[in-house]
Amino acid sequence: MLLRSILVEREPMYRQQETVSGFSPEAFGLDEASLGYVGDDAVGRALYHLFDADRGTLLTEVVVGAVERFALSLDELHNDSTTVRFCGQYRQARGRKLRGKRAPFITHGYSKDHRPDLKQLLFILTTSEDGGVPVQFRCEHGNANDSRTHQQTWEALCRAAGRADFLYVADSKLCAREPMDHIDGQGGRFVCVMPRSRQEDTEFRAWIQTHEPDWTLVRERPNPRRRGGPHDRWWVFRYPLPSREGWPVIWVYSSLLALRQ
């Protein structure tokens, strides 16, 4: 019921009975007889049991079932993270152990919401390229380093996909020696964005002032936003020197991005 209410109308737990009765009990998997049992106490007890459950195995079984039921392709998986901010003190949410499990630490960290004054949690989500279906997600401490979460995420994806040769696509937080070597050492494949702060970026921007890259057109399609507009063209260029970790560096040039900038 709580899952369906999140999809229909995001309301706090103490308003679940009002939400269910205001729409239709059948839309939440309930009938008129069970409607009277809905309340914040019942939802709280359910979440209490969910915390004690083996949520990692539960999530893997749900993903495997969805893949089989809807014939999803897990050849390419896209990962990203964001922060969920909180208002209040949360003095007890300091990563303590509860009934043998570690609870997330609601604390200050790098705020992707640009609210460094608020405490937060880090929310990590991975979706399939085939339909954008969520296949892995979890919460980490509010001050967790993104680059250190990729190894655990990738291993969970291997369990869900049943193999390691899928293409793991991530942002610049993956561009570090430890997570990239870990994925490569286990037979995995990855693509990530190189941060602007890297020395390789500085070198290429200086090199391109006096050199013309040998661009290769790899994609062309009609303008996705305006009929009759300029085509969307993408070129790539493999830089002669690899990254400091030894990985190929591919530069991408977009015609529409160039016009916009």
Question: What are the defining features of this structure?
Answer:
alpha+beta, 5-stranded mixed sheet, globular, 8 helices, 3-stranded antiparallel sheet, 261 residues, 10 strands
Largest sheet properties: 5 strands, mixed
Helix % is: 25-40%
Task: State Rg.
Answer: 23 Å
Tell me the number of helical segments per DSSP (H or I, 4 or more residues long).
8
What does this structure look like?
With 261 residues, the chain is an alpha+beta fold. Helices cover 30% and strands 22% of the residues. The protein has eight helices and ten strands. The protein has helices at 2-8, 16-22, 40-52, 55-70, 150-161, 177-185, 199-207, 255-260, and strands at residues 76-86, 97-98, 101-102, 119-128, 134-140, 167-170, 189-192, 216-221, 232-238, 250-254. The strands form three sheets. A five-stranded mixed β-sheet has the order 5-4-1-6-7. A hairpin with a 5-residue loop joins strand 4 and strand 5 (134-140). The protein is globular. The protein starts with a helix and ends with a helix.
Task: Summarize the entry for a quick read.
By secondary structure, this protein is an alpha+beta fold. Helix content is 30%, strand content 22%.
Give the helices and strands, then pairings:
Layout: H1 2-8, H2 16-22, H3 40-52, H4 55-70, E1 76-86, E2 97-98, E3 101-102, E4 119-128, E5 134-140, H5 150-161, E6 167-170, H6 177-185, E7 189-192, H7 199-207, E8 216-221, E9 232-238, E10 250-254, H8 255-260
Helix pairs in contact: 4-5
